[in-house]
Amino acid sequence: MVISTSSFELAEQAVAELQDLLGNEPNLIRLADGEPDLTVIRAFAARKLREGVDSPERTLRLAELVTELDAASRDDIARRLSVHTAQFEALQRVVRALDAGADRLADVVTQELCTSLGYGKAMFSVVRGSTWSPIALAVNPELTGDFHELATAIDGREIALREAPREAELVRRRRPYAVDAVDTYRHTYRPLIDLSRPAGYLAVPVVVDARAVAIIHVDRQSDSLSDTDVHLVAVLAGACASSKERADLRRQISTRNEHVDAEIQRLTQALRHLEQPLTMPEVATCDLPRTDASTDSPQAPVVPRAHALTAREREVLTLMATGATNATISRRLCISDGTVKSHVQRIFKKLGVSTRAEVAALCANTKTVSGG
């Protein structure tokens, strides 16, 4: 028996040779009708060898077949282990690539799936409301066939989810699905399937905040996909979700920093404006007291601890002593209401009072600057 590189083909060949050696036994017929499995076939052949067959030649050939199946099983296990190890290492590389290229996540994911992870084709789509949009496609460089039309069709156009029932179900349930060759054209989006021509494919959602925000499609073109592929791409989708969350968070922080910087610049400009001397037109618009003899101009009260006040705070205190409101003080001194409030709070603190009434009482019990 020639050992094939495919365990599936080897299993089929082993069943055919067992039929030649043993005839159409019921158990052997069931093996032939089902999906061939090296372990099951080897166990059947070993049992028949123990039970004995009708000639030394058949016994020898059956023993050789069991030995070949043992060797093939070991090779298959070693191959699978090698594949899984390579996939794990490739997955680590993909995750590192995602961290380094979060701003081009779709391109990084599809390229790595078709190089590091060995898939035939990979497509990345974003989900927005009731639509999905394929935005990136990669094709394994070793894959034969012309997929130029497929690449051209991946242009970011929005596709209604109702036109792709399987994708709609994936978005709704946030669970992956796999389609074999038989079901490739059932409930799928035919325009892309016709151009891709896969022998089955796998679709996995990228879930952020309990919502499917993207879909990853992969296929092996001529080979079927296994549960291992589902788990592998699901892990990658999880890495994509984490990468997107981190990118969104960095973007939010950057936006907030920009807002803070803008506010600081605005306040700095306002402060510079306040520190500039008034021009004559600005002075003319201020509500200044008249200087004629009939005007009773308020005099600054001599108040304990008043020496701690600034010149501007003394002006505010003088007007406060007359019962002037913040708005009046603002007009008289040509400053904003907010600035008046700040001066008032500092005056309260320096004089050890907490209300305007206390300030008025304190001023009433003292003499004015003029000694009146």
UniProtKB/TrEMBL annotation:
UniProt KW Transcription keyword = yes
Show the stretches that span the lipid bilayer.
none
Q: GO molecular function: any one? A: DNA binding
What GO biological process terms does the UniProt entry carry, in alphabetical order? regulation of DNA-templated transcription
User: Which keywords are on file for this protein?
Assistant: DNA-binding, Transcription, Transcription regulation
- A single Pfam family, by name? GerE
Q: What are the HTH luxR-type domain coordinates in residue numbering?
A: 302-367
- Protein name, as recorded: Putative LuxR family transcriptional regulator
- The record lists the organism as Rhodococcus opacus (strain B4)
Q: What is the lineage of its organism?
A: Bacteria, Bacillati, Actinomycetota, Actinomycetes, Mycobacteriales
